[in-house]
Amino acid sequence: MTHSQNPEDKKEKRVPYHFGEKLRMVREHKGLTLKIVADKAGVSESLVSQIERNRVSPAIDTLLALADALDINLEFLFEEYRRERPVQIIRADERRTLAEDDVIYEELAKPDESEKENSFEAYVIKIPAGSHTHRGSYGHIGRELGIITKGTALLKYEKKEYILNVGDSVSFPAGTPHTLENNSKDLVEAIWIVTPPQRFNQ
After folding, report:
1. Mean pLDDT, range 101-129, rounded to an integer
2. Looking at the predicted structure, is the pLDDT value of residue 24 above 50?
3. Is 167's pLDDT higher than 60?
4. What angle do CA 179, 182, 187 make, to 5 degrees?
5. Which of 4-13, 65-74, 141-150 has the highest mean pLDDT?
6. Residue whose C-alpha is closest to residue 104's, from 54, 150, 157
7. How far apart are CA 14 and CA 50, in angstroms?
8. What pLDDT score was predicted for residue 59?
């Protein structure tokens, strides 16, 4: 008796797109069986198995169904197939700079609008003695992460104060008013990462 092949399987083409590893990784991470995913996607269990092993590459409707069943963002699946993988380099003598009073910001990474919610900016902050940052004093959406590279700074966040020395890093939700102050006699420098971009997003 000859085993008949599922019609679904015949529709899938052998093309060089390998989604299998990602699909299997997510499925196993979520603790789902092949059968559960297949039932949710409305395809056969054997087809899901073949796709995960890169024996076949799914038709777009099958891929969409599997992505929905696993709650996967399609950007995650296709990111490695982008034609361009831009590497962004900003030379030390080519940094854009902004000044807020006497505080200087030197851009380290340009915001990428195509990244949308993953977009961020990074810069060096230079705070002279007795000065402080300004924009964060009102709070804004997103998160911030910084590391002190020179001097000693004082972070004011809500009603609390934190002393930050060279090598100390700090991260926090940016919605609460916050400022970075230099109460010493020496220059303070820090590397700061902010998402979404706030200063160099023009």
Report:
1. 87
2. yes
3. yes
4. 130
5. 141-150
6. 150
7. 11
8. 84
Residue given tokens 């395809």 in the structure block: 43
What does the chain look like in DSSP terms, one character per residue? -PPPPPHHHHH-B--S---HHHHHHHHHHTT--HHHHHHHHTS-HHHHHHHHTTSSB--HHHHHHHHHHHT--HHHHHGGG-S--------GGG--EEEETTEEEEEEE---GGGGGG--EEEEEEE-TT-B--GGGG--SSEEEEEEEES-EEEEETTEEEEE-TT-EEEEETTS-EEEE--SSS-EEEEEEEES-SSS--
The percentage of residues in the chain with a pLDDT greater than 70, rounded to a whole number, is 83
Q: Which residue is listed with tokens 């020179």?
A: 150
30-33 contacts, C-beta under 8 A, 24 or more apart? 30/70, 32/70
